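Re: export button greyed out
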Amino acid sequence: MCDTCGCSTDSGAVLRKPGMTDYHIHVGATGHGDTDHHHEGDHNHTHEHDHTHKGKIRTIALEQDVLQKNNLLAERNRGYFEARNILALNFLSSPGSGKTSFLEKIIPLLHQQVPVSVIEGDQQTTNDADRIHALGVPVIQINTGSGCHLDALMVNSAMKALELQDNSLLCIENVGNLVCPAMFDLGEALKVVIISVTEGDDKPLKYPTMFHEADLCILNKIDLLPYVDFDVRTCRENAMRVNHHLEWFEVSAKTGEGLGVWQEWIENKLRQR
Amino acid sequence: MHEMSIALSIVETVVSKALEEGNGRISSIDLLIGKLAGIEPQSLKFCFSAAAKGTSAEEALLFIDEPEGLGECGDCGKRFPVSFYYAECPECRSLRVNIVSGKEFLIQSMTIEEEGE
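Workaround output, generated via the alternate export path:
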């Protein structure tokens, strides 16, 4: 049940926009694609009714990927992004590693050259979307309620509400969680995992699925290295053990150190499209 | 925690398939969950019973087959069992190991009990 309008939805996720208190859209409530139901007798496959109805047990083969529904929708999102030449990045990390601070720093560097828009994912509040809104770029907040990750349907609804521009960059900030979001393809081009030096250099070994799925890893808060027992080399080695294709960056979103290298990398990616 | 949304997705899939097949009651579901799939079978079973409540899968038993992880060395080609993503080749010590199986996550089949006439 929604606390704002009292309606109930299947997925429970809600879209919100900063500064618009009346704006809230329930994900999946608009009846696009995935919420369509086909209970009418209009399907055209033949039912094999040669069996006798005597409480008999029948085995039905499915051979279906459990995440198929999410994965199919993620591919639709991906096709939409590709057709409109939108580079979509999925930012993943534990809570507090600096995803939003990183976006706050890089967006002003990029949005003079390429339109940037942002999808923010959190269980509650529009705090992160408010911070991005202050930069003057389009942003939408997904509140997942009890949900621990974004899924392809939430992103599908959010991107329609965002009115994305062609030839743009879309940053999707996932719910802060190093476990569950790794399982759910959103249709992004690349997964970016952020860790910070306050978290421990064995994070890649403790949460290998996330680091295995990621395309690049950004080590944040390197300005704090003198004050913490964090070995950058060990962390990098651990990350590379889990995923030897991982691209590695070291930055401080606070001081701006290392952001130039990353900016060069992303500008290169944008040119390659 | 993601086991809950996965349980809901399994229920949705099998219930709609059962409806297509004549709306019998689902008595069992066979799942294939590789050891590297990132799913905790016990947690999934727990969530499944909650997710299936009030549906035709309410009394279904979950049978879960858990294939072991298998890695293949990107340097020497040796295949060997792996229990995690950061495997090392026992032959040449290379870390360039590709996972060739153990990530499966499938609903293989289900049995439905058709109501007698």
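Residues 1-10, 30-53 of chain A have pLDDT under 50 and may be disordered. The button fix ships in the next patch.
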